[in-house]
């Protein structure tokens, strides 16, 4: 009743390709020349989409913490006439 895990069902009309890890180059010759420039180009093209929400979240977070600390303190004017 059934086969081993991974061979439980026959899938038809699906073709998969793979490349052996022994045939790949981990660091090709152009990695340091083209790779760093490509990373910089991709960073530069996306920074104005990603950074503003993080900056806004940081500003709201710091404002909220400062407001919480301000509201947590007692008002000294309320206790001027205490003995």
UniProtKB/TrEMBL annotation:
Family matches, as InterPro entries: Cyt_bc1_su8, Cyt_bc1_su8_sf
Signal peptide (residue range): none
A Gene Ontology cellular-component term: respiratory chain complex III
Keywords: Electron transport, Membrane, Mitochondrion, Mitochondrion inner membrane, Respiratory chain, Transmembrane, Transmembrane helix, Transport
Subcellular location: Mitochondrion inner membrane
Membrane topology: Single-pass membrane protein
Keyword flag Electron transport: yes
Any single GO BP term: mitochondrial electron transport, ubiquinol to cytochrome c
Pfam families recorded: UcrQ
Biological function: Component of the ubiquinol-cytochrome c oxidoreductase, a multisubunit transmembrane complex that is part of the mitochondrial electron transport chain which drives oxidative phosphorylation. The complex plays an important role in the uptake of multiple carbon sources present in different host niches.
Family indicated by similarity: Belongs to the UQCRQ/QCR8 family.
Quaternary structure, from the entry: Component of the ubiquinol-cytochrome c oxidoreductase (cytochrome b-c1 complex, complex III, CIII), a multisubunit enzyme composed of 11 subunits. The complex is composed of 3 respiratory subunits cytochrome b, cytochrome c1 and Rieske protein UQCRFS1, 2 core protein subunits UQCRC1/QCR1 and UQCRC2/QCR2, and 6 low-molecular weight protein subunits UQCRH/QCR6, UQCRB/QCR7, UQCRQ/QCR8, UQCR10/QCR9, UQCR11/QCR10 and subunit 9, the cleavage product of Rieske protein UQCRFS1.
Listed name of the protein: Cytochrome b-c1 complex subunit 8
Species the sequence originates in: Platysternon megacephalum
């Amino acid at each position: 009743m059934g086969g081993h895990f991974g061979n439980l069902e026959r899938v038809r009309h699906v073709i998969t390709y793979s490349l052996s890890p022994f045939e790949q180059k981990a660091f090709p010759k152009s990695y340091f020349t083209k790779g760093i420039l490509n990373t910089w180009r991709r960073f530069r093209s996306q920074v104005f989409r990603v950074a503003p929400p993080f900056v806004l979240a940081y500003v709201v977070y710091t404002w909220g913490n400062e407001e919480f600390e301000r509201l947590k303190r007692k008002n000294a004017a309320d206790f001027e006439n205490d003995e």
